[in-house]
Design a protein that fits this description.
two-stranded antiparallel sheet; about 5% strand; mainly alpha; about 280 residues; rod-shaped
Length: about 280
């Protein structure tokens, strides 16, 4: 091999190798410090795109779980109000049954009617004043719509339930194929015949409220099931994202040892290659 002082090829090769080793070492140290295999688009462009899509799915599903949970909470509030209405209707059954018997005087029926009127008013008050997040739960346009999505165009689900207006003239529906609102608004316990007619309406109202509660309960169960499914999806998507983004600590630690040794040997090789040109001076002595 000829001796030259203009270009030290071995030194250049050692420099290039050392530079590559240091880049790999820096990347390894970054992976260990962040715990992520992909820290920039340059690390794995395709993997980063897939992982970002999975992150969007997880974010949307997490909020969808919250949406469904809020929906269940609203339905529970509605069911609690209807439960209280059922209690009032059961009290009204007792009053109507008492007023319908012949052993009760007209004055006593007047007292029974006064109590029944207060029940009618309280049922209306419950329907009017029951709110969730500042919104009336029972109104003529009241309906609960829960939107759930994984952020994709085909992953959206919409669950709706109509709550409707609730007052003493609207206590669920009855009538099969042609349902009509159940009302006790015009009932009066001031006479035995009126009490008997009221008793039939009150029993129908109890059934109507029970049907409404059953509908709300079925929707609540549907939302709870959707929450369970979405939680499983979130877990699986996060696992998939982790497989792409997370650094393999065992492998990365081994790489750290490898590149640390290569860096040291590279520096030693560079030093040795620089010393080789000192042999040219011996020819000049």
């Amino acid at each position: 091999m000829s001796l030259s002082v203009l270009n030290n090829i071995s030194s250049l090769e050692a420099q290039n190798s050392l530079s590559t080793t240091q880049m790999s070492l820096n990347q390894t140290l970054q992976q260990l410090s962040t715990g992520a295999r992909i820290n920039s688009g340059a690390d794995d462009p395709a993997g980063l795109a897939i992982a970002n899509g999975l992150q969007a799915n997880v974010t949307a599903l997490t909020q969808s779980v919250q949406n469904a949970t809020d929906g269940v909470g609203m339905l529970q509030v509605a069911d609690g109000a209807l439960s209280q209405i059922t209690t009032l209707l059961n009290t009204a059954v007792s009053l109507a049954t008492e007023s319908a018997t012949g052993t009760v005087s007209d004055n006593q029926r007047t007292s029974l009617q006064a109590e029944f009127a207060s029940i009618q008013q309280e049922i209306t008050n419950i329907g009017t004043n029951t709110t969730y997040n500042g919104q009336a739960i029972f109104s003529s346009v009241a309906a609960l719509t829960v939107y759930m999505s994984d952020s994709s165009s085909v992953g959206a689900t919409l669950i709706s339930v109509t709550l409707g207006q609730v007052d003493d003239a609207n206590l669920g529906t009855t009538g099969g194929t042609t349902p009509t609102a159940v009302s006790i608004a015009s009932d009066n316990l001031s006479s035995a015949s009126g009490a008997q007619a009221a008793l039939a309406d009150i029993n129908a109202a109890i059934q109507g409220v029970a049907l409404l509660r059953g509908n709300l309960g079925a929707t609540s169960n549907q939302l709870s099931s959707a929450v369970n499914v979405m939680n499983v999806q979130i877990t699986n998507l996060q696992n998939a994202e982790s497989g792409i983004m997370d650094a393999n600590i065992g492998t990365t630690t081994a790489n750290l040892s490898k590149f640390s040794i290569l860096e040291q040997t590279g520096i030693a090789a560079l030093q040795q290659s620089n010393q080789m040109q000192q042999a040219v001076l011996k020819l000049l002595q």
